[in-house]
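Why does residue order matter? Because the sequence determines the fold. Keep that principle in mind as you read this record.
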Amino acid sequence: MSELFNMDNPFWRFMGKIADVIILNLLWIICCIPIITIGPATTATYYVALRLADDQDGYIFKNFFKSFKQNFRQGVIIGVIMTVIGAFFAYDLYLYRQLSGGMIKYLSMIMLGIMILYLFALTYVFPILAKFVNSVKRTIINAFYMSIRHIVATIVMIVIAVVVIAVTIFIFPPLIILGFGLIAFLQSYFLKRIFNFYIEKEEEVEDENENLFMTNAEKRAEEAKELEETTAQDMEKEND
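Structure:
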């Protein structure tokens, strides 16, 4: 009987994850309301989801708003860029479908292929921003690179999103309470393995001039903290 009320047993851990995902989804919805903040909100959602998938601390609110604040500027910029590109492709594809002719058909197929690549990159761009420190340009480039290099995982993650959305709309609407939080959480099990590969590769590089194409955000944060502590100690010595 005591085992039933043990919060460390699998059932309660599972229920805890469900509760975390519900809270995460609600935070994402609320922070997306201004529209322009969809990028930072999505980035923060993946930041928390990656931690949950890795069984790290469950401070949902603290971690969400920490990432939201840190990645706000880049999140807004990337969100706007990806939205504009997506709208452009979707509108072009719509126009091609309204026209007829052999050439139009081929152009429509090419545009559809480009849109698929765009969808691949969209699957990675906000998780990458959540995990690594880089410029906006490099983050988008890395998203395209990873999506192609790990194409099987990319397809699986897209399928996860489609299945969750389809089940919510056509089979079980109450699943909407988990919504995007569930998608990000399930995808994070694939993303963390992919990201760990690049983090391990980065740690193998000793010369800073030979760094790989991205830098781990947590490592940069630790270096910045150490620099602040060293500076504070130097200032104390000078005052003495």
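The radius of gyration is 21 Å.
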